[in-house]
Amino acid sequence: MIRPLLLACALGLAAVPVIAQDAVVIYRCTDANGAVSVQNDVPCPKGSQQQRRVMETPAPAAIPPMPAASPVTGPATAPAGAIDGNVVDGGDSDPDAAGENADNLPTEPPPALFSCRTWDRQEYFSDDPIPTRRCAPLRVSGLDGSAGGGLAAACEYVTDTCAPVPETALCKQWQQHAHDIRAKLLFGRAEDPAATRVELDRIEGLIHASTCRDAN
């Protein structure tokens, strides 16, 4: 009875996927409102759509042994590609290293982005698919038609108009979105600088984790 039980435990452990200790697990989370966040080694909260990707760090290459020194029997010959005895660097000559770097590049496209406009023609970008509602002030006048004089105020709720950014322009507009938020912090136009800084860090994280990371 003990031997079959040990065999069953061993088979159960073999079925569990093993992640190398030097691997990095990236979770891309989308909540019920469509907001996207990227986090390392921490699964998405309940109720979110989760995309999981494991990125393994390559093992260090073995160092080849030093060749034995041979006696010099004649004048040294300059290596191929040398000019006046100086070796010209031709760039990265290791195709395996180039392929390895290409495998580590992000392959996920950026999330959807919307170009929006307020009732007073202020334009902005947002990744929230639900447009914002704002209270647009109304002109108040007295019974005799005169201006209210600040004694009364009224407003009308108006929804911003938003349109999705085309896929061909997503990277450019995400970069512009981050640039606009940096400008708010730089010129002191942010109503809540701390919250604006958190929003900028979130947007830069989305850009870095997508194919827009190296886009100009």
Chain-wise SSE layout:
Layout: H1 2-15, E1 23-30, E2 36-40, E3 49-56, E4 82-83, E5 86-87, H2 95-103, E6 114-117, E7 123-126, E8 133-138, E9 154-159, E10 161-164, H3 170-186, H4 193-208
Antiparallel strand pairs: 1-2, 1-3, 4-5, 6-7, 6-10, 8-9
3D structure, described in words:
It is built from four helices and ten strands, in the order H-E-E-E-E-E-H-E-E-E-E-E-H-H. The protein starts with a helix and ends in an 8-residue tail after the last helix. It is elongated and about 100 Å long. It is of the alpha+beta class and 216 residues long. The strands form four sheets. The chain has a three-stranded antiparallel beta sheet with strand order 2-1-3. Residues 4-16 have low confidence and may be disordered.
